[in-house]
Amino acid sequence: MRNLRLLLAYDGSEFSGWQIQPDAPTIQGTLASAIGRVTGEKVLPQGSGRTDAGVHALGQVATFAIESPIPPANLVKALNDILPPSIRVLEASEAASDFHARKSARAKTYRYRMYRAAICPPLLARYVWHYPYPLDEDAMQQAACLVTGEHDFTSFAAVDAERGHEDEISYVRRIFVSGWERSEEELIYTVQGSGFLHHMVRNLVGTFLLVGKNTLKPENISGILTARNRAVAGATAPAGGLYLVSVDY
Fold first, then answer.
1. What is the pTM (predicted TM-score) of this model?
2. Residues forming the active site
3. Top-level CATH class of 2-95?
């Protein structure tokens, strides 16, 4: 068996997230179907993380094992011929037998794009969060810096009813980079960490928005982390502005 590694980019707007579902289009399901058509083998590619419905990727990594001798370069061409234009295989390569897209990952980088001008161009609308209202962007940057380091991010994790044994789940993550920057009409949040909880980045963005609106102060972020209570943080930001940028191994 060969262990293959794919680098993927996709527009998540029309998909119900990464993880395969029986009655909804997903990235994992669409990719698995394409691999099956090319190789004749039934596989379930494993991603570095499960991006949510509507979330995009510039550098998602997936791994799977096959017996087919097809060269990686040929696999890229064959898969891109079958996959919808919204999913592209950027690279394919042989990987060590013990390499796993998720388990081997050391860090991930996400980006969130907020469009600040009064009118959002139609061709950008599904790729940004249009928020033209007044914000204290300097305060948002101060708040973002306060989540760097190792913290318990329970307050920023989605409450998943289907997850049992909550006491067995660790919500501790290490954030290496967290900050906002202006790029013309966009306010962009970049965060790099050892890993991320469900909805964590979008919940951070929603909370930083409250700081920008002066509903919260930057220093309140430390108290929200300490509270370990989802109810004290901000609402979940829309999915369309979020991108998985890259995965480090």
1. 0.94
2. 52
3. alpha beta
